[in-house]
Structures are given as C-alpha cells and as structure tokens.
Structures
1.
Amino acid sequence: MLPCQRKTRSQSRQGRSHQALVAKNTLTCPGCGEAKLPHCACKACGYVRPGLKVGAQAQA
Ligand SMILES: [Zn+2]
C-alpha cells in the first residue's frame, strides 16, 4: 500500500517534531555516588531507599 497523497515537506517536519529523544531522569546514589534511576535499585551497590538494599552486595 502506498500513501494516497504525498505529504508536504512542512507536514513531514511537523510530524517529526514529536520524535525527539528525551534524556532519562537520573538521581545520584547516596550510597556510592553513581547515577541511578528513581524508584530503582542502584546497579553498583543495590541501594533503594534508607534501610533497604537489594542485590548481591546487599550486606555491604
Ligand atoms: Zn549506589
């Protein structure tokens, strides 16, 4: 199937104005200082929130 009508250059560009990539929001881990995602365990030390650590290095 082909599009019934060719889009103008303006229409194509207006549609692409919604395709920009957005940077992920990151927090600094208070345990080790690495960048981590909010509400997720830190990949380096397993820190989630005060009093909760998960993962292999949870004892540290
Ligand atoms: Zn960490």
2.
Amino acid sequence: MEAEEMTLERLIAEEVARAGPITFARFMALALYHPTLGYYAGGGVGREPLGWSGDYFTSADVHPLWGWAIARQLHQMWELLGCPTRFDVVEPGAGRGLLALEVWRYALERAPEWATALRYTLTDRAPAGSPLRSARERRLGAALAQMGVPTTATRWLNAPADAPSDAGAQGAPAAPAAEDGLVGCVVSNELVDALPVHRVEARGGELYEWYVTLETHREEAHGGRLVEQLGPPSSPAVATYFDRFRVPWRTYPDGWRAEICLEAEPWLRQATAALRRGFVLTIDYGDTARRLYTRDRHGGTLMVYARHQVGERPLVYPGRQDITAHVNFSALRAAGRAVGLPTAGFTTQADFLLRLGVREEAAAIAARRFPAADTERHTDRGQADYLRRGALRAAVATLLDPHGLGGFRVLAQHRGMPGAGHHLLGIAGAEISTRPRTPSPWPLRHV
Ligand SMILES: C[S@@+](CC[C@H](N)C(=O)[O-])C[C@H]1O[C@@H](n2cnc3c(N)ncnc32)[C@H](O)[C@@H]1O
C-alpha cells in the first residue's frame, strides 16, 4: 500500500491485528498525536482544529480580556520575583499562540519594563515543519512583528514527545535544559485534558480496563470496526490509581466508569524541569480527585468534539475529532509536591478572572470604545455602540459562566520563592510559601 493511502483507521486496525487489543490511552495517543495523521497534527490535511472554524473554542477565542487577565497575573509574578532582568514565560500546548499575543500586547502597552525582561516560548505537539504548525507560526509571527515585538523574544520549541534526537539539525531547537534554570512561569490552558487516558470500569468490587480491538468477524480484513473490550488493568499504575487518591470506588455500583490519565504527572515534571524559580499556572476543566471521581459521575467525563458538536463515539473518525477528559488536579498537585512545587492556590477561572479585574477592565474598554452606548442611543452610532457593548458583556459572562469556562480550575504552584505572606493577585489568600507566615523584607507590589 502507498504511504499516502494510509488512514489512521487503517493504521490503528493494523496495530490491533498485529499486537492485539490496545488500551484506550494508546488509541487516543494515535488518534490525537500521530505525527502526520493525528488530530493535533492537522489530521493529515493541515486542518486547524481550534477556534470558531475548527471543532471547539477555548477561552482565548471568547475575548482578548482572558489573555489580558493572565498577562496581569504574569506581570505580578515578575514583580513578586523581584523584577528580574529576564522573565521566561513557557507555554506548553500553546496551540495557535493566542495567549502569547495578548501577553505581549499587555506587556508593551501596560508594563514596558516587564516587556524588556519578557521571553516567551511556545511548545505544541503539532510537529515543527508541519503545515498546521507552520501556518500558526507565520500568523503569530506577523501579528507580533506588527506590534513591534523583537523577533528574538519569542520562540517555538518542539514538545518533548515530538522532539526527535536530531531536532537541532532540522532547525527546531529542543526544550530548554534544566541547568539553564529559568526564572518565570510555565502556563498552560487546556493541555492536560488532551493527554491520553485509560478507561476503567468497576464491577463486583474489581477494577477492569476498556481496551480497543477489532470486531472479531472482520479481523482478517484489517479494516474492521474498532470496538471496546473489557479486560484486567493494563498496569499496576492503573490498578492502584484510585487508591492513591483515596477514591472509594469499591463502594460504587457496578458499571461505574472513569478515566485515568497516567501522563499528567510525568508531563508536569517534564514541563517544569527547567524552572529554577517561579510559578506554574495550569488552567483546565476538572477537579480534585475526590470531587471528580464521585459515585454520581458514573459515566466518566470522556468527551468527543467535532464542528462544535459533542459526540458520543470516541472510536470513530480517529484524527478527525477531538477526544478529551476532565483533569484530576490532585495528581498535578501530588506531582508538584514531589518535585518541590507546592501549591500556591487552587480556584475557579471565574474567581481568578474577577480578582484580576476583568469586569473593571471590560467597563473601561466599553467607556473608551463604545461611549455612545448611553449618550446617543437614538443615533445609529449609539445603537452600534450599544450592541457592541452588549457583545463585550456577553463575552465576559461566557468567561465567567460557572457551568462553562468560569467553572474551569486554575492551579498555581511555585518554586524557590523566598519568604511568606505574599499573594497572587488572581487567587485569594494564596500563600506563596508552605512556611508559616512571617514578616519578609521582600518588596511587595500590587498586593
Ligand atoms: C486543547 S488544545 C489547547 C490549545 C491552547 N492552549 C488554547 O487554549 O487554545 C491542547 C493543545 O496541547 C497540545 N499538547 C498536547 N500534549 C502536549 C505536550 N505534552 N506538550 C506540548 N503540547 C501538548 C496539543 O497539540 C494541543 O494543541
């Protein structure tokens, strides 16, 4: 068969026919991250999966105010770190780079001193050199150039999983080395929910795992339909996962299903390995283990998205639809504790954005850009301003919606911060130290 005729369905079917049933995590890894045909590689056709013309939108699509708020938090982190002459923002899973754009806009317009210190690194598993990644790099590059961002201050790196050993030779630099010791923040939005998950089910007090296999009568053709099959846990890590997080799953009724992401903890360790001093900000849907893995949520949280519709069949159309599951933030906190990244705060996106002042900023934007909304309602201009202000308010409401984006969680972790009694702007009462509160000689700004 010619390489160009290969489809992801066929590739997965061949792997199953050759090696036997695969875990759902393996299926998801191929469906989302096969280097050419995977969903996040452009599905073999360079298609952009994100945004209004893609399959789903993220906070960055709703309004630039979201990026403004994150930028404000990053700016305060720089101040808490003592305004170092270099401050690195590393964004794994940067997608189209929409957050980078807003962070730069904020820095240039509101905090020029910070802008001179700022270096922004984007990584993503859309492979370097692929049509999808090249298009993203071109678009972001053009927008940043127009804003006057120095070209050397922003760079794209390969995500470790797609970084070949000869990445340097291909002109794609590898991730920064730990000994370089970054000072700054590792920030991600909706990355962890896109990591492959195992699917499990409780029956009779035992934990089973769902595998992906081929319908038996079609196996010979290598082109059969992919179906689920129950089996024992694929590894001790799966078998003991819920016990690690004290989830009382044995008391749950038969048929209780859930997802287990074994990649989240290694991801956190790897993504933060180079961070010498600073913060990790992880934004996503999910919750602590005990609130995520409840008896009531018996169907799990796996979701499938295509063209802004929620689907129910994760095994169909591999590479052409998104697959995602809620994040167990307890796992990220545990992984952080183990590598010297204690939690500085955990809150909802709504709370985070409100504390950072999105409402006030939206009101300021409205007064500046849509002044006729109140004063000239009887004119065309007044009507237009009124409608635009309504759209702005609707966008803010969408970002704050407790049943939607506002219900996302924000986890802040920190490393190497001196003293105590310091707080992040976006998280109420978040002590940036595990030590008892003591007076500190440390300069405080914005607190
Ligand atoms: C749901 S999208 C979110 C994109 C963007 N952060 C946004 O909010 O619009 C998840 C992104 O994470 C990327 N990704 C997944 N695993 C990754 C990893 N280990 N390192 C870097 N990026 C990763 C995917 O390629 C995908 O573009």
